[in-house]
């Protein structure tokens, strides 16, 4: 009985380490997004850290338009980054879960 618990604790620590390594790796995964007309381009990491923003000069003439572009484009990029982040972390966490019959239904 205690062997099983110790084995599970070891697997939990290993999973925690893999999750941390995955989070660090996601800092290097870049997500690019742009407005539909290409006038605004943003790049962020899969951990949702903004790395760059490129704004076409034509957008600098209209503050409201630029704000709208930023909101829309950043939200799309954040959504993509969040999907990548959650998928990667869920895969690592699932690997570390003990094999309990019926648990697959809860992991979907």
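Q: What amino acid sequence fits the structure above?
A:
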């Amino acid at each position: 009985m205690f062997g099983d618990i110790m084995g599970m604790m070891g697997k939990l620590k290993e999973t925690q380490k893999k999750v941390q390594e995955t989070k660090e790796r996601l800092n290097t995964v870049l997500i690019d997004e742009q407005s539909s007309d290409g006038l605004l381009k943003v790049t962020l990491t899969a951990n949702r850290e903004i790395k760059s923003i490129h704004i076409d000069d034509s957008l600098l003439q209209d503050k409201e338009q630029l704000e709208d572009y930023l909101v829309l484009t950043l939200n799309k990029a954040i959504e993509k980054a969040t999907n990548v982040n959650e998928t990667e972390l869920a895969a690592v966490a699932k690997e570390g879960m003990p094999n309990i019959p019926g648990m697959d239904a809860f992991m979907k």
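Q: And what stands out in the fold?
A: The chain has a mean pLDDT of 86.
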